[in-house]
Specification:
By secondary structure, the chain is an alpha+beta fold. Helix content is 41%, strand content 15%.
Amino acid sequence: MTTDRTAHAMAQTALAHWGNAEAPPRMVKNRENIIFEVRLRDGTRAALRLHRPGYQSRAAIESELDWCAALAGRGFPAPRPVRAINGRLTARAGNRIVSCVEWLEGVPLGAAEHALGPEGAALMYGLGALAARLHNTTDADSLPAGFNRPHWDEEGLLGARPLWGRFWENPALDEEGRALLLAARARLRDRIGAARDRGAIHADLLRENVLATDEGFALIDFDDCGIGFRLYDLGSALLQNLDEPALPQLVTALIGGYRSARPLEADQLRLLPLFVALRAFASAGWIVSRAPEGDPRIGFYAARAVRMAHHVMADTSPWE
């Protein structure tokens, strides 16, 4: 992991590509991507992002930013990219690609470990409407030319090399759990092709990536965006809520919000539990390369994937 001290030094180097800043950058988080809040010399308040080495190529990051610019240009609440002084969307600092987007002022809906509380249904309704609006905005026009992003399709989710790793090899799994995940993986490959709606998706629609602003909800962190199943966005939004006592009501609210802006037929809705399972499986692979050995999240994500695999094999839903 990059130390805070090293990250600050890299940020100062990177800011030269944007004409430097009025004051030292403020670190917001040091995780996969390192994020700083900055005030550029021209007064622009922005988020400076030091991208995780080796995850997305420079071309893919610039495609992400092109899409965000297109979305914002059509009125969708996404962060607009800020071009460097040479006109490019990205630069380099050390071993990291760097980008800069306009700062969106707001409060995240909540981290994964926090319960939604009594206002949960209203929040989920708004989240569903935001997801529908994203999908509608992309339908309204073509994607930016040369859109170079991952494909969250059968191969990207369940192939020999899933985008987020071979989840059935999570070290916290025992032989029984591994066999169950492999069986569920095979069943999912047979079934998810029935999901008809595919296109550009956010692919990481977690509560921490949704901001409550004065103008309504806004969506940030398009680092995983790509082409895939639209239901995967809804499955990602629901995964964090599996242990909420009000889960059935939250599901109803999310779907109600989505249907308020975009159709979702009953036969497609029946596939939604499969996409919650897909996100659980992907997360069980993702954590292995992101967490140190012995991190309790490795076991937690593995156990959650096993739980969802049981639902897949029994053709049941965790909220019914």
